[in-house]
Amino acid sequence: MENSDKALDTGAKRVYDVAPSEMFGEFMKTGWAPTPLEGITQDEVIAYCVNRRTELSAAFSGLRIVLPSGGPKQRSNDCDYQYRPHSAFAYYTGVQGVEAHPDSVLVMEPSGENHTPILFINPRSTRDTDAFYRDAKNGELWVGRRFTTDEASQRYGIDVRPISELEVFLKGGVAAALHGYDEVVDTKVKKHPRDEELINFVSVARLIKDDYEIREMQKAVDATHRGFSDVIRVLPAATQTPRGERVVEAAFFGRARVEGNDLGYSTIAASGSHACILHWTRNDGDVRNGDLLLLDAGVEVDSYYTADITRTLPISGKFSPAQRALYMLVYESQKAGIEAIKAGVPFLEINRASHTVLAQGLIDMGIIKMSLEEVMDPAVGIHKRWTLHGVSHMLGMDVHDCAHARAEQYRDGVLEAGMILTVEPGLYIQLDDELFPAEYRGIGIRIEDDVLVTETGYINLSENIPHHPDEIEKWMASLR
Ligand SMILES: [Mn+2]
Asked: Residues 179-195: pLDDT tens digits?
């Protein structure tokens, strides 16, 4: 789709100029049948958005709030990355999946004690304009039909206005806003002393998941389970293909796009000793029988909730004795971490419970020659040479969810019912680590599940994805 005519920069919008003659311009406006959208319904999320906005409104009584969706990210020249809106914008509007478009803005306008939500969007370019065939970023013949403001209003249950009115609307007003995502918002809305509080509020609001969010998280986990099965099916082909890790990555990505919106984060497909490199997203290694594959991947569903699952699989379908021995240590460590979970327990207790098992295991193997007490002293902690990372983080619309929470709200806080978090201990024996016998070197193992905190304990949302080595071998055999 080469456009031979030069691109004109007309303000923020790029317009491809086909230099229409007056006659052509008039001609293009005629002869089109009306194409109304019939039967627009509201997604179930909309009722939840009403509650979410009520809480936001109460926290910022009398103050305008501005939540932009964010603009497109340029990949090169006139090609952008696949668009994905800011999570807070999606959380408070219910705009999801393919319905999300760049440069939308939610304004919460104070009215009395409460706020009236107004959604600004780039609406449908109708046939009486020339944008529908000229505007490569928004035109209907370039990117497809969108909602009119009326249609969007029916769909999302709030007042919707064209984005072209935003600048005048915002001018001179005082507001708390998320800055750094939208040019108009950044130029028209001055920094406000409560901006930081807003960033914190919209991040922390998602610490406790509502029923809708829990159902969406389960969907994401179940789709991810099917993606892992897809990977197992292609493992024989991966061993026959140079850069077989890419075969693995591509199989999972296929599932993410078929069932979901996208990947929740870049897939780690780490074969053999690549598993010991924590963020191995190059995925350009070979896949060999006899090695392990560490696969850390998650499907993001259309509502943008993502799973975050890791399984370590024997590529041949069978664990070797050394692989199984290390795997069982991580397995027991994860079990201890998960079993520590219930409302009221400190968040860091998950980490402590998992690491205690790992450290004891390393002592039992004769690798660490100290008492457990000495090792677990925060001033010592030498087991971390092989465990490397923390065991748990919040999970939701963002894979590292609620990242703007303060320490006392999250890391140094206590677990509450409705939180969803990962439990993901690992052991990584680098290839050149002379403190381990040779048969263990180059083995990296992580097991990661997504767990819902309840009043009395937990629900492991990914319980059905095999964990135990025997179950994993059975799962793999059943798919060959
Ligand atoms: Mn994780």
From this structure: 999 999 999 999 999 99
